[in-house]
Amino acid sequence: MTATALRAILASGRVTHVPGVYDPVTAALAVAAGHRAVHLSGAAVSAIMLGRPDLGFVHATQIADRASTLVPALGGIPLIADADTGYGNPLHAVWTALSYARAGIAGLHLEDQVSPKRCGHLAGKEVIPIGEAAAKITALADQAPQIVVIARTDAYSILGLDETIVRCRAYAEAGADAVFPEGVDSLADLARIGAAIPGVPIVVNRSEAGGERPALTDAELAAAGVRLVLHPVSALLAAMRAASLTYRAIADHGTAEPVDRMPWAAFTALVGQDEALDLDARYVPKGLQT
User: Fold this and answer.
1) Both 219 and 247 in a single domain?
2) How many Å apart are CA 105 and CA 5, to the nearest integer?
3) Is 20 helix (H, G, I), strand (E, B) or coil?
4) Does 160 fall in a domain?
């Protein structure tokens, strides 16, 4: 059902902003804020689980495992997850998609970088031939139709806009539900892509890793064909900043009082403490030591 909901969002004709989440608490916060879809970033998983950069340290298994812990907190809101390059050939990509679907992931984005990939915002990227990338997409569309496939291309910074358009068209024809031209930020370039592939939803990235970007309104983006705007690490960076300030305050002043924090009661409500206590009262026999 979540894949159906995600496809409806892509077909809606409006822009949906998709924030990054990385655990059940952030997932619950995103739902409470009213978001219609959320995103799980490979960079976030690599940082949270391993303390490592987004340079291929995590695999599909770790993304799926992390997703399985936060999907229950989403209440049916679709989760889009980073699938890197599919972690290998088309058969590996299918295995990735099926493992994601089992974890409750509604959609994935698959990129055309050479594997092992580099972070999309770093120099030195390379892309694989169009045919190889399209073969992965065709395999997913054929063998994992229960998951939404967003085809990402990193060709823009390497080969330019024309090649990006060629790849977006090829990937859409291969069966992708949407295309993700990484690094394309100007309204004129987005409009050219949209005109070249009418009816194909476009996904754009607003990661802080990409630096400053043109300020575009949702109306402008929608007119160019954009349907999803990803904000993969904004909440993670905000949380890290808040944690840094808190640790510094404790070190300097012996208290976290100078730092704005969520009230304890709000936190316990978010994680369902009252409901958990009610379940204990209902199912644990009186007098039983637990």
Assistant:
1) no
2) 12
3) strand
4) yes
**DSSP-assigned letters across all residues of 111-163:** E-BPSSP--TTSSS--B--HHHHHHHHHHHHHH-TTSEEEEEE--HHHH-HHH
Same structural domain for residues 208 and 264?
A: no
C-alpha of 156 from chain center? 20
Q: How far apart are CA 256 and CA 238, in angstroms?
A: 17
Measured between alpha carbons, how far is 23 from 90 in angstroms, rounded to an integer? 29
Task: Pull the structure tokens for residue 251.
Answer: 């070190």
Say how many C-beta atoms besides its own lie within 10 A of residue 138's C-beta.
Answer: 17
17: DSSP letter = E
Q: What is the pLDDT of residue 217?
A: 96
d(CA 93, CA 250): 46
59 lies in the same domain as 6: yes
Q: Which domain holds residue 261?
A: 239-283
256 three-state secondary structure: coil
Q: Is residue 289 part of a domain?
A: no
Same domain assignment for residues 247 and 222: no
Q: According to the model, what pLDDT value does residue 117 have? A: 60
Residue 214: the pLDDT is 82
Say whether 110 sits in a helix, a strand or coil: strand
Asked if the model's pLDDT at residue 290 lies above 50, the reply is no
Q: What are the tens digits of pLDDT across the range 229-246?
A: 999 999 999 999 999 999
Coil vs helix vs strand at 40: strand
Q: Answer yes or no: is pLDDT of 200 > 90.
A: yes
Q: Are residues 164 and 135 in the same domain?
A: yes
Residue 69 has pLDDT above 90, yes or no: yes
Q: What SS3 state is found at 108?
A: strand
> Model-level pTM?
0.92
Residue 278 has pLDDT above 90, yes or no: no
